[in-house]
Amino acid sequence: QVQLVESGGGLVQAGDSLRLSCAASGRTGSIYAMGWFRQAPGKEREFVAAIRWTGGCVHYADSVKGRFTISRDNAKNTVALQMNSLKPEDTAVYYCAAATGYYGGSYGHTATYDYWGQGAQVTVSS
């Protein structure tokens, strides 16, 4: 089992920055990659970014490319999402997720991930 705990959410204004962090514990040696997803009210959960635990290969959704940066600290078993130039449409609950198997091109699918955090609210006011 892997446990994930997010932190760093909050209320900001458009154009501001915010940094989310996710701490992994338990069987962290089984993690292949970590991802961030978000879910706005009335919408499906959508992919934001992913990073491989070894090698650091990253992927981003087009909607956040150039504004968000995902990073990891293997020694501390943490993954972060630096969010810059935030927009009101970025408002959502952000979830950290861990995948334990090779995902190929399926990094953007929720079914790829085996463990999920409880979520962190990010609200961007206009």
Molecular structure report:
There is one protein chain. With 126 residues, the protein is mostly beta strands. The protein has strands spanning 2-7, 10-13, 18-26, 33-39, 46-52, 58-60, 68-73, 78-83, 92-99, 115-116, 120-125. The strands form two sheets. Strands 2, 4, 5, 6, 9, 10 and 11 form a seven-stranded mixed beta sheet that branches. A hairpin with a 6-residue loop joins strand 4 and strand 5. The protein is globular and about 40 Å long. It starts with a strand and ends with a strand. The model has no long low-confidence stretch (mean pLDDT 96).
Keywords:
mainly beta; single chain; 126 residues
In a few lines, what is going on in this structure?
The chain is an all-beta fold and 126 residues long. 0% of the residues lie in helices and 51% in strands. Strands 2, 4, 5, 6, 9, 10 and 11 form a seven-stranded mixed beta sheet that branches. It has a four-stranded antiparallel beta sheet with strand order 1-3-8-7, with no helix packed on it.
Task: Give the tally of β-strands.
Answer: 11
Number of helical segments with 4 or more residues: 0
Q: Largest sheet, described in full?
A: 7 strands, mixed
Radius of gyration: 13 Å
Shape annotation: globular
> Mean pLDDT, nearest integer?
96
Query: Oligomeric state of the chains?
Result: single chain
Reconstruct the topology from this structure:
Elements: E1 2-7, E2 10-13, E3 18-26, E4 33-39, E5 46-52, E6 58-60, E7 68-73, E8 78-83, E9 92-99, E10 115-116, E11 120-125
Parallel strand pairs: 2-11
Antiparallel strand pairs: 1-3, 3-8, 4-5, 4-9, 5-6, 7-8, 9-10, 9-11
